[in-house]
Amino acid sequence: MVSPAEPTGLEVGRLILATTTSTDDSGLLKTILPDFEARYGATVEVIAVGTGQAIQLGENGDADVILVHARSREDAFMAAGFGVNRQDVMYNDFVIVGPAADPANIKGLTDAGAALAKIAETQNVFVSRGDDSGTHIKEQSLWQATNVSLTDATSIKNVDKTFVRPEGEWYLSVGQGMGSVLTIANEQQAYTLSDRATFLARKAQGLDLEIMVEGDSRLFNPYGVIAVNPEKHSNINITAANAFIEWLTSLETQQLISQFGMDKFGQPLFVPDSAAWNAAK
Predict the structure, then answer these.
(1) Domain that residue 62 falls in
(2) What pLDDT, in 10s, does the model give residues 34-57?
(3) Rg (CA), the chain
């Protein structure tokens, strides 16, 4: 539990935070947000969706701040003038998970692309988020690094984009968040790509899947926070957004992040990575 915070004297009001599902599904936000709300007299409305949808909410002016994990999309958001004050926050990694029986025989591989190629070759079920999330974006880049035949497809869940996917009924694109995808993969005894934090949180709730592949440098998963540019949308609460960014990247909050998960898993689910945290090392 986070200890009670001292109010700063700055009352920022309602803040709309659009964020990737992993920060919500893992339980991180539920743990740390009460500290921000107490310090700044804030009420935070969390919209947990895929990274692509979170960025779209920012572009539309339907969020004050976004917390996401797809650096190329974040850079494009900034370059187009939709965002201001982007800051590094934290990182963890992606893992390929699957059933203990491991019918594709990929456990222990350190090349994520080779593991996906074996899943495709054996046509074991792979569950994809298919929702333009940071995880889905990473998954597509991994497939593109293989020699697996790919085809263009349309996302399922309110995303006006096309993406690449392998051909075959063994590949299930479900248009769901990470927690739901892990549930589906568990029910189907299938493989999927997950961020480590959400996987460990769901594993503690009885998930039967196991980590099959980890450690590939391509599975690195950094998170960034960006305020939406108030010059694009007059309704943006930029005072609240900047206060949130300052709080999230502060040494105190980074310390909270560094401890999150230690009690249940013996390891943090996210690793702090803000400029203030790295400067204090």
Answers:
(1) 13-91+222-279
(2) 999 999 999 999 999 989 999 999
(3) 19
